[in-house]
TrEMBL record, chains A, B:
The organism's taxonomic lineage, starting at the top: Bacteria, Pseudomonadati, Pseudomonadota, Alphaproteobacteria, Rhodobacterales
Cleavable signal peptide: none
Residue ranges occupied by any S-Me-THD-like C-terminal domain in the UniProt entry: 168-358
Pfam families: S-Me-THD_C, S-Me-THD_N
SUPFAM superfamilies per record: CV3147-like (SSF160991)
Top-level taxon: Bacteria
InterPro entries from the UniProt entry: S-Me-THD-like_C, S-Me-THD_C_sf, S-Me-THD_N, S-Me-THD_N_sf
Official protein name in the record: DUF917 domain-containing protein
Domain S-Me-THD N-terminal: 7-163
Amino acid sequence: MRLLQPEDLEDIAVGAAVLGTGGGGDPYIGKLLARGAIQSHGPVRLVSLEELQDDARVITCGAMGAPTIVLEKVPSGDEMLMALRHYEEVTGDRVTAIMPFEAGGLNSCLPIVLAAQTGLPLVDADGMGRAFPQLEMETFNVYGIAAAPMAMADEKGNLAMVRTRSASRAEFIARGLCIRMGGQASLVNYPMDGATAKRVSVPATMSLAQDIGKVLRRARKEKTDPLSDLIVFLRTTHYGHAERLGSGKVTDIERRVENGWSVGIVTISPFGEGMPYRIRIQNENLVVERGSDILAVVPDLICVLDVDTAEAIPTERLRYGQRVEILGVRVPPIMRSPAALKVFGPAAFGLSAKYQPLGGG
Amino acid sequence: MRLLQPEDLEDIAVGAAVLGTGGGGDPYIGKLLARGAIQSHGPVRLVSLEELQDDARVITCGAMGAPTIVLEKVPSGDEMLMALRHYEEVTGDRVTAIMPFEAGGLNSCLPIVLAAQTGLPLVDADGMGRAFPQLEMETFNVYGIAAAPMAMADEKGNLAMVRTRSASRAEFIARGLCIRMGGQASLVNYPMDGATAKRVSVPATMSLAQDIGKVLRRARKEKTDPLSDLIVFLRTTHYGHAERLGSGKVTDIERRVENGWSVGIVTISPFGEGMPYRIRIQNENLVVERGSDILAVVPDLICVLDVDTAEAIPTERLRYGQRVEILGVRVPPIMRSPAALKVFGPAAFGLSAKYQPLGGG
């Protein structure tokens, strides 16, 4: 167990932006909310999966919606608490630990807010090991945990509980609710006990976000190459492999809100000769293509980073003329099993590309 | 109290189609479901508002969706029971009486199914006095009753509970859920006690539906003019006024599903000379225009009837060439107050027409 203090949040937000792979919502907002919550309620206890009691009542949480909408319809930080209280009232369950349902962006920070508000410990793990655009794209679901009962809330205090027979149906229905709640809402889902959480979660992703932030901060201070440092560091983690996929200038962005997601294509033209890179987006970066070559595809992480600082640029902040590096990161083995690839491999996104783990897997 | 038997259902369905004013879903399906439920579980006790205990726990129920979808995605009859059980489980409330939330079409018959399945009494009243396309268009809402907590279910067993601060927000969110449940779902809402139900409901609308059916059956048997008989009868009820607005042949139908409703315009050309009648539809018939004249507008009932039998033709069954009469019926005083007109008068549908009660009010 260690305490998360306000000074930890800067690194976490920087790292969460990288793990967000373009999505997960802008962590800047999440950082401000988390700082305010810790200042009001005191530091948050971060516990590892190993430290978690087997009989703990864990619930996972986060916001859903289109990141382009989150930019203008900022969460107040209270929606998740309303969703949790509603879940507890309706089910009679008493939650004893909080876990992010995704690692990345806003959704690494909002669970810190909830942990501070409730005084409950925050589990250093999640169900995506990155950000994904859909609620069923969770290792929890891959390894047999039900997404529902699920509680949702918006900033006006509208509340909904959903029970469904499958996680993909929960996603479909919750997305409809989310759209009617203005395109962005907060939720708690995947209730489970501590023993189960140990079996089905991607471990240590909050610490990973913080470590990524530290690496980039040190590189800035010591004037080393931040992307090289980041790649070296990532190869020491359970993700195991990271590499440069390309670099260039953003020369085109198609981006719209469709069915409650930010979708589109970003084109990056190399600084030298050669064909442009095209990245397909559904909240997150799904695939990088160059001509007919697939350079990387989900579930591996595709991160668009500022060429000077290696800080991640979320999809909703991409602009013409930005100079970027494209980083690829292989996901840990728990996310590459045949069962996992069925839930969040290329075919789950309607992509025909075959998944080849970066670095040979 | 009287018992509803299978032989009562024919008249109820015929009358419910008239009160449906084009919407409420095809009562033919509802009649079959209600007959099956009474045959399996025994007759249903129909109680008047006066007979209802003041401390009764009443909940209202019905299906929502686009009637054109209901034609192909027929309710199984079990969705409403799932919604009721879910409501009771989540709230801890124990319901002791069932009331339709609208009078008309399928939604006059589905509450009979639920009453038969549960053995609970059915209250002879509703909150619309007709069919309306939106959940907030209820005398319950007009007179201060909250629409939520509200439970919804679809035929696959997906369940949702919604809590909102206003009935119009409940409608908006539930409509989103309904769309994601395939465009048609069942729900229970507006929980209230018996004393409240007496104050805020439109009385005796189940009996009214049955009486309308009887009048038309007798006219067929005695070979009198069914529409004249119906108008004479309706003038003796608390609705107080009905009149022929026109007649002719259906010569054009524009009809589509939009935002979860069946919407469109039907054109009826008079048998003789003169301009055509145009009826605007949002599930129900909202307004009849002829040139620049408004012949009738919500909340008054606009019913398109077969020219020979005076049986109502729901909007989803309108076809080119049908020979029809257009009947207008004034709503009872509880539905014409300034507060009521705010909730379901012309402006609530985006119509600029001013409401003038048929027959001078």
